[in-house]
Amino acid sequence: METRTVGHMQFVLDLSLPIYEQMVNQIQRMIARGEVELGMKLPSVRDMAVQLKINPSTVVRAYQELEREGLCEKRRGQGTFITSSQAKVEEVKKQLAAEALHSFIENMRSLGITKELAQKWLEEAEWE
Amino acid sequence: METRTVGHMQFVLDLSLPIYEQMVNQIQRMIARGEVELGMKLPSVRDMAVQLKINPSTVVRAYQELEREGLCEKRRGQGTFITSSQAKVEEVKKQLAAEALHSFIENMRSLGITKELAQKWLEEAEWE
Amino acid sequence: METRTVGHMQFVLDLSLPIYEQMVNQIQRMIARGEVELGMKLPSVRDMAVQLKINPSTVVRAYQELEREGLCEKRRGQGTFITSSQAKVEEVKKQLAAEALHSFIENMRSLGITKELAQKWLEEAEWE
Amino acid sequence: METRTVGHMQFVLDLSLPIYEQMVNQIQRMIARGEVELGMKLPSVRDMAVQLKINPSTVVRAYQELEREGLCEKRRGQGTFITSSQAKVEEVKKQLAAEALHSFIENMRSLGITKELAQKWLEEAEWE
DNA sequence: GTGGTCTAGACCACA
DNA sequence: GTGGTCTAGACCACT
C-alpha cells in the first residue's frame, strides 16, 4: 500500500492487486469527481511508470482500458488525453455507480439481509 | 455459468472467479441465510467434486478456507461439518455485511456521489 | 474439543487431531501422575468406544500403542491392564519429560532465544 | 533427512512432517534469528522447487502460509518478499516462543512434574 | 519472468 | 469411508 503523486494526480497502489486495474479505477474516479480537467493530457507512459515505480507496460495497459471505455484517447505522437465529452464522463459515472449499487444489493440479499436493514445501516454510516 | 445441485445445496459456478472462492462465498451465504442446518455434515470432498464436476483438491481448498474462518470443522475420518455455533455464524455474517457496506460507500464517495443520492437510489431500487 | 469421562478417567478430545494419539498421551500422563492405580484394568474397548463416542478400532489402536511401550498389557479373555511395574512408569515418565525438555530447547534455540531468557520466562510463568 | 541450500537459506527436510510445514517453520525461524534480511526477495516458486527437488505447488503453499501470517508479501510479477516490518517479525517471534513455553509447561505439568524440577533440568541442560 | 489456479491421479493416516 | 499431502503438468493473469 503506497501513495504516489504524478502531476496533480495521486495514486494509492497495493502491489497485491492488479496495478493496471487500480490505475484505471482511480483515474476513472478522479475524472468522475471532476478533479482533473477534461481534455487534459495524461502524463506520458514513461513519466507515469517512473514516478509510480512500475513497469511501463502496466501503464500502457491502464491507458488502453481507459481508451476502450472512451474516457481517454490516444493521439499519435502527442500522448494520451482525457476525453472532452462531459456526456461520456456522466455516462461512465452512472454506470460505475449502478454497478456499485447492484453489487451492494446482491451482497446484502445473498446474506439474507432485508432492504430496511440495509437502508438503516446506510443511514447510520459515516460518509466522510 | 452453470447451476449444479449437491444435496440440498445449489451452486452457480462460472469461470470468471476462482472456483474455490465461489464455493466459499456461496456456502458462507447459505449458512448466513439459514438455508443449511448448523452442525450438518457437508458432502464429502469426493462427492462434492464428482457432482460439481471439479477436481477434489479444489473442494479441499474451499473447505480449508471455511475451516480457517471457523464456519466449518473437520472431524477425522468422518467428514467436514458446518459449525454449530450460531454466534460464529452471526459474526461472519456481520463481517461480510460490514465489508459490503464499506465497499459500497467507498465506491460511491470515490465517484463524488453524495450520501443523500446514494440513499435515494437504494430506496428506489428493487430488492427482489 | 470435548470432555468425556470413562470410569475414573477423564478425557479431552479434539476431533481435529488423531484421537488414538490423544488417548495414548492422556493415559500415559494419568499413569505418570499416579492418578490411576498400577495393575488396574482399563475399560474394555467396547465401553471406552461407547462412552467416548468414538470408533472401537481407535481404542484398539490406542491400547496397542500403550502395550508396545510396556505401559499396558493385554490378557486374553480378561482385557487390558496397566502395568504393575513402577520402574516402567518411571522410565516412560523420564522419557516423556526428556522429550518435552529437548523440544522446548530446540524451539527456543531455533528462534535465536538465549538460555538465560528462556529461564527467565520459565521462572516468571504461572505453573498452575 | 536431507539438507539443501537455496541461496543463503539452508533447509533440512524429512518425510515425517508435511514439507510445506517444515518450510514455513524453517523460514519463520531464519527470519526470527535475523539470518535473512528484511525486505529481501525470496527465491521464486520455481527456483525453490527445483533446488529443493519438490513440487512448485508445495512451495506455493508454504509461501501462502507465510503471507497469511504477515511474514511475507507477494508482489505481482515480481515475486515473494520477506516483510520489511521489524515489528511484525518480533510479533511472530514472541508468539512462537510463547507457544513453545506454554506447550513445555503443559507437558511437564501433565506429567506431574514440579516447576522447581523443570527449572533445574533447564538449568542443567546444554543449550548449544 | 512472476505467482495463481486447476486437473488428474497417487499414496497415506485416520476412523 | 474420510480428509491430507504431494506430484506432474497445464493454462492464465500480471509485470
TrEMBL record, chains A, B, C, D:
Residues 17-85 form the HTH gntR-type domain. The keyword DNA-binding applies. This is GntR family transcriptional regulator. It comes from the Bacteria. Keywords: DNA-binding, Transcription, Transcription regulation. One of its GO terms (molecular function) is DNA binding. It holds the Pfam family GntR. It comes from Collibacillus ludicampi. InterPro entries: Tscrpt_reg_HTH_GntR, WH-like_DNA-bd_sf, WH_DNA-bd_sf.
